[in-house]
Write a structure and sequence with these properties.
By secondary structure, this protein is α+β, with helices and mostly antiparallel strands. Helix content is 35%, strand content 23%. The protein folds into three domains: 99 residues, Rossmann fold (3-Layer(aba) Sandwich), CATH 3.40.50; 70 residues, Dna Ligase, domain 1, CATH 3.30.1490; 266 residues, ATP-grasp fold, B domain (D-amino Acid Aminotransferase, Chain A, domain 1, 2-Layer Sandwich). The longest helix has 19 residues. The chain starts with a strand and ends with a helix. The mean pLDDT is 94.
Length: 472
């Protein structure tokens, strides 16, 4: 069993890993840049070490982090999500120094992180992929010729991209000519690689991802799916498990595809296989994330399986303690990414001091955060400050409970996306579970909310709207 883990991350995911370690009796080591000196993960971990004054560079320094893991007697390293979590160099450095990397091998991370290699691997495994280039594009002329062949709109994508960056939709040739160099520039700056490829743009698809776990003995299971269709500029706002718009047959098919995808590349640890579904229910492989994801909490809520603890146990060479038929889902869960942003001002980041913070409670409520009253949100990182996860037995109960929880939570000192997310819950489309990635763009009035109504009156109004819809 792993005895001591260095957490190569910050924020709520670092706190989440600390908690998993504590329940397993594993020592946790936090790292922090100077702006995070008073961060919650620093306070919660068994040990904590400063990795330098710079806000970002320390969290991206492979050799400094691995050297610190060795120096502090750690036998494993957890990368969390973001930063170096999908960097094969970190996994390789850990292997060279005798540190267990809690994730797949460097070779698998590289293969699945390179979108063109991932496409080829899925084609070989018999999994449907979106029509597009066989490899990286060599020139604008090649891109133009391919776009004419597969038909507009198309998506230009950074081969090493992720997190919604390095992606541009092109509806015609002038768009393609305008965006080609832009995507190359974005890819080079964000990922250190100028490689880009092209895919057919599936207009307003459903974005469905399947959580998998795979041990070192060849056992692979899926933990059902999450619906991540509520997005703004490729950034997820609300995640749902299971998807309220999938049939059981479609759910089974996606689960089988996800297992086949993981097995085909000899995957180990936790991962997510992402798919796009068009309006004719055609399934297309999108990508595989070789790490724990922000939205893993909704899967934990419906299955009762602690994904982060399973990551640690798999890395400790333990076999999965369950088979596919043992995994059952119960109820529905939603995760709200509460960001320090102003929806009324084009989601402008709203960093600053948290003057007051109260987390909601009651049945089926979970919060994952790294903030507290008096905490100063630094302007250098992602704007997410709280993850609110809500569970209920039925879809209707879930919406009602989510309204109550969003009204219960109190984050003062910065503007947040809470009022915007309450508006999402009021829409008939969301209440019916019929959503796709075009939802936010098709509801431009969501940001026109009023804060003048007392929260209880707002909750009552939403509850009345939900009841009226459910009676239809």
């Amino acid at each position: 069993m792993i005895k001591k883990i260095l957490i190569a991350n910050r924020g709520e995911i670092a706190v989440r890993i600390v908690r998993a370690c504590a329940e397993l009796g594993v020592k946790s080591v936090a790292i922090y840049a100077e702006p995070d000196r008073h961060a919650l993960h620093v306070k919660k971990a068994d040990e904590s070490y400063n990795i330098g004054p710079d806000s970002i560079a320390g969290y991206l320094n492979v050799h400094r982090i691995v050297n610190l893991a060795v120096a502090t007697g750690c036998d494993a390293l957890h990368p969390g999500y973001g930063f170096l979590s999908e960097n094969p160099d970190l996994a390789a450095a850990c292997r060279r120094r005798g540190i267990k990397f809690i994730g797949p091998s460097a070779e698998v991370i590289h293969r699945m992180g390179d979108k063109t290699q991932a496409r080829k691997a899925m084609i070989a495994a018999g999994i449907p992929v979106t029509p597009g280039s066989e490899g990286n594009l060599d020139s604008l002329q090649e891109a133009i010729e391919l776009a004419e062949k597969i038909g507009y709109p198309v998506m230009l994508k950074a081969t090493s991209g992720g997190g919604g960056r390095g992606i541009r939709r092109c509806d015609n040739q002038p768009d393609l000519e305008k965006n080609y160099d832009r995507v190359i520039s974005e890819a080079t700056k964000a990922f250190g690689s100028a490689d880009v490829f092209m895919e057919k743009c599936i207009v307003n698809p459903r974005h469905i991802e399947v959580q998998i776990l795979a041990d070192s003995y060849g056992n692979v299971v899926h933990l059902f799916e999450r619906d991540c269709s509520i997005q703004r500029r490729h950034q997820k706002l609300v995640e749902i498990a299971p998807s309220p718009q999938l049939s059981n047959d479609m759910r089974q098919t996606l689960g089988e595809y996800a297992i086949k995808a993981a097995a085909s590349v000899k995957y180990e640890n936790a991962g997510t296989v992402e798919f796009l579904l068009d309006h004719q229910d055609n399934i297309y492989f999108m990508e595989m994330n070789t790490r724990v994801q922000v939205e893993h909490t909704v899967t934990e809520a419906i299955t009762g399986i602690d994904i982060v603890q399973q990551q640690i146990l798999i890395a400790s060479s333990e076999a999965l303690p369950f088979k596919q038929e043992d995994i059952q889902m119960r109820g529905f869960a939603m995760e709200f990414r509460i960001n320090a942003e102003d929806p009324k001002n084009d989601f402008l980041p709203s960093f600053g001091r948290i003057t007051r913070y109260f987390a909601p409670g009651g049945p089926g409520i979970r919060t994952d955060s790294a903030i507290y009253s008096g905490y100063q949100i630094p302007p250098y990182y992602d704007s997410m400050c709280v993850k609110l996860t809500v569970w209920a037995l039925t879809w209707e109960q879930l919406i009602r409970r989510s309204v109550r929880a969003l009204n219960d939570i109190n984050v003062q000192g910065v503007k947040t996306t809470i009022p915007y997310q309450l508006e999402i819950l009021k829409t008939a489309e969301f209440q019916s579970g019929k959503i796709d990635t075009g939802f936010v763009e098709s509801h431009p009035d969501l940001a026109n909310y009023s804060l003048r109504r007392p929260p209880r009156e707002l909750a009552a109004a939403i509850a009345a709207a939900i009841s009226a819809h459910m009676r239809m």
